[in-house]
Amino acid sequence: MNKAELAAAIAKDSGVTQADAGRVIDAFVTTISKALKKGDDVTLVGFGTFKVMKRKERKGVNPQSGKTITIPARKVVKFVSGKALKDAVAK
After folding, report:
1. How many CA atoms lie within 13 A of 44 on its CB side?
2. What fold is seen in the domain 41-91?
3. Mean pLDDT in residue range 65-91
4. pLDDT category, 79, cuts 50, 70, 90?
5. Which residues of 53-79 are buried (b: 16+ CB within 10 A; e: fewer)?
């Protein structure tokens, strides 16, 4: 499902226009991005939690040359699904 399909489904289920649903999706993504950038976790009970994790520096291999390289440390976003979402997918 892409963004347009998601907006259409939200519009159908909630009775708003597809354009309004698209703006809500944009606002949702922007708000979550801002919170994660500040270092906050975003928890949607029953759905899941978005959190920022620190990945340590590590060694890797360049697949073209076969040489060992150092992959720098960085922050990554992790999503942990909630129980209700896990149960819904499992059925």
Report:
1. 10
2. HU Protein; Chain A (4.10.520)
3. 95
4. very high
5. eeeeeeeeeeeeeeeeeeeeeeeeeee
- The whole-angstrom separation of Cα 37 and Cα 57 is 20
In the chain, where are the structural domains located? 1-39, 41-91
Length of the chain: 91
Q: How far apart are CA 4 and CA 15, in angstroms?
A: 16
> How far is residue 91's CA from residue 88's CA, in Å, rounded to a whole number?
6
In tens, the pLDDT along 15-35 reads: 999 999 999 999 999 999 999
Q: Which residues contact 70 (CB under 8 A, 6 or more apart)?
A: 57, 58, 59, 60
Q: Is 70 left (phi over 0), alpha (psi -120 to 50) or beta?
A: beta
